[in-house]
Amino acid sequence: MEKRIAIVTGASGGIGKEFTKILIEEEVDEVWDVARNKEKLAALKG
Ligand SMILES: NC(=O)c1ccc[n+]([C@@H]2O[C@H](COP(=O)([O-])OP(=O)(O)OC[C@H]3O[C@@H](n4cnc5c(N)ncnc54)[C@H](OP(=O)(O)O)[C@@H]3O)[C@@H](O)[C@H]2O)c1
Q1: 3-40 pLDDT, tens per residue?
Q2: CA of 27 to the centre of ligand 1 (A)
Q3: What is the distance in A from the centroid of ligand 1 to the CA of 1?
Q4: Secondary structure in 3-state letters for 1-46
Q5: For residue 44, is pLDDT > 90?
Q6: What span, in angstroms and rounded, lies between the C-alpha atoms of 40 and 4?
Q7: Probe ligand 1: pick from 9, 19, 34, 36, max atoms within 8 Å of CB?
């Protein structure tokens, strides 16, 4: 089966953050989150 990779821009908050949660629940193989705010982005890992 092909690997599924998602790239989410504006992932540190709002729609991007919620969309990231859905992608993880959907068991996408890799989710690449992109944003300017490194602190908020790092907090997503928790
Ligand atoms: N929320 C809603 O119900 C809704 C409904 C319809 C349309 N929209 C539209 O959908 C978009 C996202 O909404 P949201 O509620 O998720 O917004 P948000 O919470 O204000 O922003 C989401 C992400 O966008 C990034 N961002 C903000 N300004 C940016 C800029 N100038 N350049 C690059 N990245 C930027 C931020 O990440 P960093 O600052 O870390 O880069 C943030 O994590 C907006 O354009 C909004 O008008 C939202």
Answers
A1: 999 999 999 999 999 999 999 999 999 999 999 999 99
A2: 24
A3: 33
A4: CCCCEEEEECCCCHHHHHHHHHHHHCCCCEEEEECCCHHHHHHCCC
A5: no
A6: 25
A7: 36
21 Cβ contact list (under 8 Å, min separation 6): none
If one counts the domains in the chain, the total is 1
**38 lies in which domain range?**
5-43
- Judged against a pLDDT cut of 80, whether residue 46 lies above it is answered with no
- Contact of 8 with 20, CB cutoff 8 Å: yes
